[in-house]
Each structure stands twice: as C-alpha cells, then as structure tokens.
Amino acid sequence: MKKPTVRDIARHAGVSVATVSRVTKDDPKVAASTRDRVLASITELGYSPSALGRALAFQRFDALGLVLPGLSGPYFAELMSGAESVTLRVGSAVLVLGTHLRADSPKAVRQLAARTDALVVVGGTLGDAVLAELAGRMPVVVVAGAPDGLPTVRTDGTAAVRALVDHLVRQHGLRDLLFVGHDPGSPDTVARYTGFLDALAAAGLSERGAPVQVGLETVFGAMAARRLHAAGRMPRALVCANDEIAIGMLATLPGLGYRIPDDVVVVGFDDHALAANVSPTLTTVHQPVFELGVKAAELAMSAVGRDPLPADVWTLPTHVVLRESCGCPHPQEPEQVVP
Amino acid sequence: MKKPTVRDIARHAGVSVATVSRVTKDDPKVAASTRDRVLASITELGYSPSALGRALAFQRFDALGLVLPGLSGPYFAELMSGAESVTLRVGSAVLVLGTHLRADSPKAVRQLAARTDALVVVGGTLGDAVLAELAGRMPVVVVAGAPDGLPTVRTDGTAAVRALVDHLVRQHGLRDLLFVGHDPGSPDTVARYTGFLDALAAAGLSERGAPVQVGLETVFGAMAARRLHAAGRMPRALVCANDEIAIGMLATLPGLGYRIPDDVVVVGFDDHALAANVSPTLTTVHQPVFELGVKAAELAMSAVGRDPLPADVWTLPTHVVLRESCGCPHPQEPEQVVP
DNA sequence: GTGAAAGCGCTAACAA
DNA sequence: TTGTTAGCGCTTTCAC
User: Fold this and answer.
1) For residue range A279-328, what is the model confidence (pLDDT) as tens digits?
2) Contact by Cβ (8 Å): A243, A270
3) Is the C-beta of residue B305 closer than 7 Å to nucleic acid chain C?
4) What is the spatial distance between Cα B269 and Cα B179, in angstroms, rounded to a whole number?
5) Which of A307, B85, B134, B204 lies at 20 to 30 Å from A220 by C-alpha?
6) Are A45 and A7 within 8 A, CB to CB?
7) How far is CA B225 from CA A253, A288, B176, in A?
8) CB B282 within 8 A of CB B250
9) Cβ contact A337 with chain C strand, < 7 A
C-alpha cells in the first residue's frame, strides 16, 4: 500500500510525468481530454503530490521556524496564531521551538533552521552569535527584541509603561510604586522597567524597592503577592511586567485581605483577554501581539529566496487601557467576547 | 553565495560523495586521514547537510504533526512541550496546527500531514472521516478523545470528576451544583460532565440546571460568573470543566460579593500551576498533561515506517487535589514552584 | 499539446 | 577503505 507517485499516475493515465506535473499545477496548456484522464487516475489511485519532492525541486521547505522562550502563556499563543495565519494563507507551515532557556538550544535551533526557509525569533531567546550565524544563512526577523542589526518587529514598551505610570502618579497621586516581573534576560521586560523608572524620575519619585524578579506567568504573580505580604513590604501600587502576573495578583491579594484598588493598585501589560473580565477589571497596556506575529512572519517569508531584509525596526502601536484596578471608574460594559 | 552540497565537498576534498556522506554520519569505516580532509573541507566551505535531501532519500520528514483545537491555554502548551521533548530527543521537529474550529481545517490538516511522518490529534478537532483517511496514510494517535478505532492516550475524566463531585456531596454536604464549561464537541468535556452527572445520580441529586456552555478559557469563566450573578442563578457549587474557567471565577466572584467557599464552592480540572497559588487555593483534579504529550508523541513516532499501531487505549492516572476552594482546610504550604 | 531527460541533495547497494 | 551509480518525487527546459 505505497503512496502513488507522479510516475504511477503517468503510467496509469498513459501520459508522461511532465504532463501529470502540469495538471497538478493547473498549467493551461494541457488538452482538456488528457487533463481529465490524468485527473481521473489521480483520484482513482488517491495521489497527492509529495511535499518533499516538491520542496527538493523548488529548493525550499515552505516552512517558517518560530523560536520562543517557552510555549505557555497567551502571549506566545497569540504570536503563534499570528504567524500561523500567514503561513496558512500561503500554504506553508510553522515549526515551533520553545527554547526554555535550555543550554543546548543553539543545537535545537540549528536543527530547526535546517528545515525551514526563514526564522522568527523572540528577543532574548538566543545569543547574538547564534543569531548572527543564522542570519547569514537565511532571513531572520526578531520579535520584541533590542534592535541589533536584524530586522525587528516590536512595540515601544518603554513609552507605554511611561504613559501608564504617569497616569498612576498624576491622576491617582500614587507615590509608592513597585515593579514586579523584572527579567534582565528579556529585552521586552527591560524596556517596560525602563519606562517605569523614566516616569518615576520625571515625577521626582524613586521606586519603592528593587523590582521583584519573578517569571512572567500567572503563578509567579500569585507567589510574589504572598511573598510581599509575608515580608510586610506591600506597596501602594504594583506595576506588573505583564497581565499574567497582574492577574495572579488579582486572584491572590483579596484572599490576603487587600482591597483593589483601595489598598493596592495593580496594573499589567498586554491586554490579555481576561483583563476586561476579571473583577476589578484590569488597567493595562494594549499590545497587538497577533499583529506582531503576522508582521514578523510576513517579513520573514517575503525575504525567502530574495535579497536579505534591511535591518529596519517596525514599531507597532500600543495604547493604555484604563479600567478599575488603578482606581478609575469602570468606563463601560465589560468588553464583548464572543464565546 | 550558494549553500555547498555533498558534491562540492567531495570535489574540494578530492573524494567521492559517498565518502562525504559516510563522514557526516560517523561511519567508522573511513580512514582517519580522509576523514580529516573531508572535515576540513566541510568547515572551510561551511557545509551542513540538507535536511531535505536526507528526508527525500530516507523517505521521511523527521517531523511530527500536532493538531490542536487552539493554541492558547496551559493545557495545549503542556501538551506541546511534552511532544517537543520527545522529538527533540530524537532530532526531529514538531509542526503545530491550531484548527480553531475553522471550516477549512481538513485542508490545513492535509497540508500538515503531507510534511510529517506521524500525527498526534487532540480529540474533537477533526471529523471521524478525515481522521480515518489520515490514519490510512500514516500513524495517528488521538489524545483525549473518545476511543474509536485509533490508538488513544487519555485520562479518565469521568471517573475523576465523579470522585471530585462525590467529595463535594459527601464531605461538604453540597446539594446545589452546576456544571460550567460544557462543550458537546469536546470528548474531554463530555467525559467530565458525564462524571458530574454520575456522581449526582449516585447521591440521588439532580443538577441545578443545564450546564453552562462556555469556552474553556479563563475569560469565559469570568463571563459566566457575571452572567450567573446577573441572572440570579448562582448555585452553591460550581464544577468547572477546567482550571482556567475556575480561575476566571475566582478572579471575578469576590468582586461581585461572593465569598469562596462560604457562599460558592468552586472546583476545577487540570491542576494548573496557578491552582495551588490563587487565593483561595483551588480544589481540582491533577492530570498529567505533559506526559500525555510525551506518550502520544512516542507512540506516534514509534510507528513510523512500521506496522500500524494497535488501537489500544492508554489511560494515564489522575488524582483529586483537595484545597481550599471546596471548603477543605488548606492542607499545607502552597506547592513550591521554582521560579 | 506532449514527452524525454536532467537535476534538486542525499543515501545505499554494489564494485573495485 | 573508497568510488560508482541508481534512485527518492517532483519540476522544468528543450525537443518534437
């Protein structure tokens, strides 16, 4: 029960392989009668062209590699979805790799690179040397990384957090703020923290204490809340590196006796689908993550087989979304999400 | 700046392509001197074997396809990680596809199938006909699906929820229970709902009302909470189809004035990393999702190029985890998670 | 409009 | 130990 090949079809239909090939790609210069004959054989034998043979002949895989730090969390899911939407449109595929900050990730990435036409890499997942090596061989687009000679798609986290913290300081008169979720290895987080410091400096304030270094997942928000509570270091406002951490806070602080926003103000970053639906609703920064994925994928794929991409930086817009958790009145009905 | 091929190396090193091929795969029967010469040429020309050529010669892609309903949520992330861990071990890759219940997903899946050696499919994502067609062509393993002639890796959601609800009824004397997150299209959800009904029937109770049909993401838990509140239909206990829904509840109910577990008991399913860290901590069912991914991937890959897999059903163990949200005293410190 | 043949990069019998 | 050669499945000139 082997899969039939072009040759099988050719023999069965009494034509040459070239003709079969022409039929499969709708070449107009095939007589209708022969086309029908070939088509019949194709359905009868259950033939479908091998992606492999095609890839070899075309010298491309029709596949895009996506390198992420980890696989969990809505951020990466959105990014993947964005990339996938592009590849699906053009009939190619996405191969994902979660480096998980593994030591042997360069090896894994090379493995990935060896079977894809282009790479989209999230900033902070790979060392500069590996990145440069890869970029010498194929189109590489960095997402949410610090621009460093490679085409980059990002948002301006610094400006966004600056605006957000500005709001907290000016509108709500907060003076005792702490940043949660700093990760020196993630350019994205660093940018947000920088915005936090900028805003404080502009207001003549200094941070309540060193930023809390925890991972970017919900569970770490919950842990950080417990830790701050236990240490008696709960500040007046918690500026979280992302919504997941903030939501972990929201789910934990009330149980520890804190009212939000009366006792503690909590803000996030990303505008997670949940942000508008938790209680209190979460003030955050909206970031077009899906679009980041789309843009990066389009860019990377557009460069396949062409000139290398210019090392431009595409900055997609963000905006602050004011909700209840910062003390603002809830502006409207919870955003509609179709189930 | 073309990539060098075997032939380039062969010419450069003054040997035949066969010898180059032997060197690249560490064939012992190559003289040390020629090996060195070849190795030198390889590094000098910057050669790396094309996965494509290799794949064509071997007639396999060294890639595993993973078909998921969607890309978001910790469940799928874990599953992917599990699958990825085994493919990484053997030097192959994972291609993911989120069907998102799209109408054209059969097309996308076939596209995926055309470039992978085996498939792992989450139950409920594909119609039986498509599944059967695929299974006729390559190894297919179903995860968390209803067994139907295909090898299946699953947990017994029915038994698990039965045990959980039994606990709620017997230990906490609850009699007014509602199931949240029913999705007739997901075998997994159906199994859990069945366990819910079983337990009620065994206790001579009937459900509070028709199960709330919402998606399986956090945001829908939050929405369902608001909806039940608005309708004045809040039951005494909410049995959620997964932890995400339960966490959405936990994040929302207090803001609406309900105390957990005093006013409303909330339980989930999955034992999400956050479950032990939210407040109150979440009573749930632990499910070895990562291992489901591992097992399914191993099974699928083991059948590549071999006899078809027997349509066995592997059932991995689950266990109920009692925490605060059902009214149990918190048994211990929050579970440790290394940041 | 159709076919023959070369070639994409690699592996593996079979020879030498 | 090394080389020759024939594929793997497909596309694509170039003849006819």
Assistant:
1) 788 999 999 999 999 999 999 999 987 778 888 999 999 999 999 999 99
2) yes
3) no
4) 12
5) B85
6) no
7) 19, 27, 16
8) yes
9) no
Q: How far, in Å, CA of B306 to CA of A219, rounded?
A: 43
Contact between residue A203 and residue A164 where contact means Cβ atoms under 8 Å apart: no
Burial of B313 (0-12, 13-18, 19+ CB in 10 A): middle
Which tokens belong to B11? 């010419």
Contact: B339, A55; criterion CB under 8 Å: no
**Among candidates A16, A23, A26, which has minimal Cα distance to A42?**
A23
DSSP label of A273: G
Residue type, A181: G
Interchain CB distance below 8 Å, A96 and B81 = no
**Does B6 contact strand C, using a CB cutoff of 7 Å?**
yes
- CB under 8 Å to A82, separation ≥6 — which residues? A289, A290, A291, A292, A293, A294, A295, A296, A297
Rounded distance, CA B284 to CA A196, Å?
Answer: 37
Residue A224 structure tokens: 């950080």
- Identify the residue whose tokens are 């938790």: A278
Residue B308 distance to chain A (closest CA, Å): 12
> In this structure, what token pair is assigned to residue A191?
């940018």
Total Cβ atoms within 10 A of residue B104 = 10
Per-residue CA distances from A93 to A90, A324, B67 (Å):
9, 41, 12
Measured CA B296 to C1' C15 distance, in angstroms: 45
Phi, psi angle pair for B165, to nearest 5°: -70, -35
Sequence-distant (6+) residues with CB within 8 A of B128 are B148
Q: Write b or e for each residue in A233-254: b if 16 or more Cβ atoms lie within 10 A of its Cβ, otherwise e.
A: ebbbbbbbbbbbbbbbbbbbbb
Question: Which residue reads 């059967």 in tokens?
Answer: B132
Residue B76 pLDDT > 60, yes or no? yes
Instruction: Kindly write down the DSSP assignment for every residue of B140-172, as one continuous string.
Output: EEEESS--SSS-EEEE-HHHHHHHHHHHHHHHH
How do residues A57-115 score in pLDDT, each as one tens digit?
888 888 899 999 877 767 788 899 899 899 888 878 888 888 876 777 888 888 888 88
CA distance linking residue A289 with residue A286, whole number of Å: 9
Closest approach of A306 to chain B, Cα-based (Å) = 12
Mean pLDDT of chain A: 88
CA distance B17 to B1: 21
Distance of C1' in D5 from CA in B19, Å? 14
CA of B96 to C1' of D7 (A): 32
- The secondary element (H helix, E strand) that includes residue B265 is strand B265-267
Task: Tell me the H-state helices in chain B.
Answer: 6-13, 17-24, 32-45, 51-58, 74-89, 105-113, 128-135, 157-172, 187-202, 218-231, 243-252, 289-302
Closest nucleotide C1' to the C-alpha of B18: D3
pTM: 0.81
Among B252, B274, B278, select the one facing A279 at the smallest CB separation. Answer: B252
Candidates B89, B279, B306, B335, partner chain A, best to mutate (most A CBs within 10 A): B279
Q: Under an 8 A CB cutoff, do A223 and B108 touch? A: no
Distance CA B163, CA B169 (A): 10
Retrieve residue A137's tokens: 């061989």
- Taking 80 as the threshold, does the pLDDT of residue A214 lie above it? yes
- pLDDT of A119 higher than 50: yes
* C-beta of residue B221 within 8 angstroms of C-beta of residue A278: no
Is A331:A280 a contact under the CB 8 Å cutoff? no
Q: Which nucleotides of D are covered by protein (CB under 7 A)?
A: 1-13
